[in-house]
Design brief:
The chain has 324 residues and is of the alpha+beta class. It is built from nine helices and 16 strands. The protein folds into three domains: 6-117, Nucleic acid-binding proteins (OB fold (Dihydrolipoamide Acetyltransferase, E2P), Beta Barrel), CATH 2.40.50; 133-221, Beta Barrel (OB fold (Dihydrolipoamide Acetyltransferase, E2P)), CATH 2.40.50.140; 237-321, no CATH class. The longest helix has 18 residues, at 249-266. Keywords: Chromosome, DNA-binding, Nucleus, Telomere.
């Protein structure tokens, strides 16, 4: 199995995960575990098998559950963070062996899931909050779109949502047109009701409270749609630059400013917006991607692991590594 989203992370830590899963033929004792879902990842799209991770709190312990069997991927849609579930016929495993040695539970073909108790999830109120807070959950409505392709939206007219670091790699953030079979990352629309779990709360530009999602985060849209598990990539120049170099939030803001500058200056010459905003346009590189690639040609491209962003206790995600 290749690393998560090989286009950007072929040499990342996720390759280590893929190479160190225990042999399927090893004998293991099957276990049942029960607890509260403290966190749920998106379904990360891989070349061979998509997967998602659950953090389950049981008494004073936390356990990680990795779901990668195709027939069990639909479980993701029914799992509600904060509620209690029982998982049967599970087996223990270790991933990232020799470096992190993270203990997890994996499912078997006989595994089942059942909700044992429903609990109300506490969403955060950001009124009168000035400091940056790690991993809060928020419920809001999209009131305007800042950059749809790059995944930046305004909620409730006062909160900025940055989903850019999850775009292109999460099955739930891709939509498919049944008629044309075309896929798009432009999933969200004005009026959509969203629940955002485990996002970073920052004081962003223009004093706006900003929710930035990383590999630990989950975005739930109340509007019904089916996740897309197969490999796909958008043609957004900003997302391409963002995932190739992995330089964090300030880099994303710079890319958005660069695109806006190109549009305002070059659009007077009646050049199509697609030539500026796209990664590829009529067989040639889009202007944003071409410019960034040239300017940063001597810079080392950073690797990123979505799995470790979710699993590591110190939560060393891309936002903490390149904090402003």
């Amino acid at each position: 199995m290749e690393a998560i989203f090989w286009r950007y992370w072929k040499k990342s830590e996720d390759q280590l995960f893929c190479n160190t899963m225990s042999c399927k033929k090893c004998k293991s004792t099957y276990l049942d575990i029960e607890g509260r879902v403290a966190a749920l990842s998106h379904t990360f799209r891989m070349i061979e098998n998509p997967l998602f991770i659950i953090e389950l709190e049981s008494n004073t312990d936390s356990h990680y559950i990795l779901i990668r069997r195709k027939e069990q991927l639909p479980w993701h849609k029914k799992i509600i963070p904060g509620s209690f579930y029982k998982f049967t016929h599970m087996k223990k495993d270790i991933i990232f062996k020799g470096k992190y040695d993270i203990e997890i539970f994996t499912t078997t073909q006989d595994s089942c899931i059942s909700k044992t108790k429903e609990d109300d999830y506490e969403f955060f109120s950001i009124e009168n909050v000035d400091e940056c807070i790690e991993l809060v959950s928020y419920k809001g409505v999209i009131t305007s779109i800042v950059n749809k392709e790059a995944g930046i939206f305004k909620l409730d007219g006062k909160v900025l949502l940055v989903a850019s670091f999850l775009m292109e790699v999460s099955s739930e953030l891709v939509s498919e047109n049944p008629a044309s079979k075309e896929m798009s990352s432009s999933l969200f629309c004005v009026g959509d009701k969203l629940e955002i779990y485990k996002a970073h709360l920052l004081k962003g530009r223009e004093g706006l409270h900003t929710l930035v999602c990383c590999g630990r985060s989950l975005i739930r849209n109340h509007r019904e749609f089916s996740p897309v598990y197969n490999f796909w990539k958008s043609n957004c120049g900003i997302l391409h630059c963002l995932h190739v170099f992995n330089f964090g939030l300030s880099f994303l803001y710079w890319l958005c400013d660069l695109e806006t500058f190109f549009l305002n200056v070059l659009f007077k010459n009646e050049r199509p917006q697609e030539k500026i905003k796209s990664c590829q346009w009529k067989g040639k590189k889009g202007l944003v991607w071409k410019y960034v690639e040239e300017q940063l040609k001597d810079c080392e491209k950073r690797c990123r692991s979505l799995l470790l962003e979710f699993l590591l206790s110190d939560h060393s995600c891309i936002l903490k590594q390149f904090a402003e």
